[in-house]
Amino acid sequence: MINGLPAHVLLVHAVVVLVPLTASLAVLAAVWPTARRALIWLATVLAAVTMVLTPITVDAGETFARNFGPSETLRTHADLGSTMTWFVVPLVVLTVALLVVHLRERRGKPLARVFVVALAVLVIVAGVAATVQVFRVGESGARAVWGASSAQ
């Protein structure tokens, strides 16, 4: 509980904002060298924060779910939510790889272009996947809380 509110209710908002924000910054840094120089440190820090907050949010959600009776929509949300870490970890690893690309470029020892392009493709895939998954988890959570009216 945080100020009388279940922790999950507060933490989930951070994850819902940080995952797409981190993914967007990482994609920009992957495909645009000028953006990489400006954004890679921020993207890396946000990715690390997201990686820490995601399992904490999942654990808080499991604790919060115990207050409710069994429900198929809640089970679906919990199952989807428990996968979020698997989407966030690749984003973190790839963002750190982009940081390595940036640091090597700064030192005048850039990596092979084919590696940088392959990394950019992986960052795009991981960013889109994480963003889609956070939407799916959030949408299932809204259905669990608000029922069928959340689809309207």
Q: What labels would you give this structure?
A:
152 residues, mainly alpha, 5 helices
Q: What can you tell me about this protein's structure?
A:
The chain has 152 residues and is mainly α. 82% of the residues lie in helices and 0% in strands. It has 5 helices and no strands. α1 runs antiparallel to α5 (113-146) and α3 (72-81) runs antiparallel to α5 (113-146). The longest helix is centred in the C-terminal third of the chain and has 34 residues, at 113-146. It is elongated and about 60 Å long.
The total of beta strands comes to: 0
Name the structural class.
Answer: mainly alpha
Range of helix content: over 70%
Radius of gyration: 18 Å
- Determine the mean pLDDT: 92
Shape: elongated
- SSE succession: HHHHH
Note the main sheet. Answer: none
> Unreliable segments (pLDDT under 50, ≥5 consecutive)?
none
Estimate what percentage of residues fall within beta strands: under 5%
Tally of contiguous helical segments: 5
How far is the N terminus from the C terminus? 30 Å
